[in-house]
Write a structure and sequence with these properties.
The protein has three helices and two strands; from the N terminus they run E-E-H-H-H. By secondary structure, the chain is mainly alpha-helical. The protein has a domain of 31 residues. The protein has a two-stranded antiparallel ribbon. A hairpin with a 1-residue loop joins strand 1 and strand 2. Helix 1 packs across helix 2. The longest helix has 18 residues. The protein starts with a strand and ends with a helix. This is Transposase family protein.
């Protein structure tokens, strides 16, 4: 179980899978940097999809 303000019913494998997708996409587009690392960005995306909160609301917890 991963935690982000509340428990998300996600496995660590899911988080690593989505982080890998983000990492590969960043490499493909030549992204130099992002404020969040791929793991934290993946957690933000998964929390958004699960809880249907805005990214602004969720992003406050990632800062």
């Amino acid at each position: 179980m991963l935690f982000y303000r509340s428990a998300l019913p996600l496995s660590r494998q899911t988080l690593h899978f989505v982080a890998g997708l983000i990492r590969r996409y960043r490499r493909a587009i030549g992204s130099a940097w992002r404020k969040l690392d791929p793991g934290r960005q993946a957690l933000l995306v998964l929390a958004h999809l699960h809880k249907a909160e805005t990214y602004a609301d969720l992003g406050a917890g990632c800062a």
